[in-house]
Design a protein that fits this description.
Helix content: over 70%
Number of strands: 0
Largest sheet: none
Radius of gyration: 15 Å
Distance between the termini: 53 Å
Structural class: mainly alpha
Strand content: under 5%
Low-confidence stretches: none
Order of helices and strands: HHHHH
Mean pLDDT: 88
Length: 83
């Protein structure tokens, strides 16, 4: 299967936005700006929040805690709230 055929198949299965997100996270992992799968910590979530990457912080939180988007959103909001 060629690369273009693989990309077209992924786009059909996942949708363009989700496919872009997968490629984006993979690129961030290669550059070390997003933790490898299974190695994320809450320090990573806080670092992502501090750099303004709230969406990635949510994703990272969900990987750590295996929770719903709502639960992750509430927790990340609590982390980013002024103390």
């Amino acid at each position: 299967m060629t690369y273009l055929a693989l990309v077209a198949t992924l786009a059909a299965l996942l949708g363009a936005a989700q496919m872009f997100s997968l490629f984006h996270v993979a690129a961030l992992r290669r550059t070390g700006r997003y933790p490898e799968r299974g190695q994320a910590t809450m320090a990573d979530v806080e670092e992502l929040l501090n750099t303004g990457a709230r969406r990635l912080a949510l994703r990272c939180y969900r990987e750590i805690h295996a929770c719903s988007l709502r639960e992750a959103s509430d927790a990340v909001c609590a982390l980013s709230a002024p103390r």
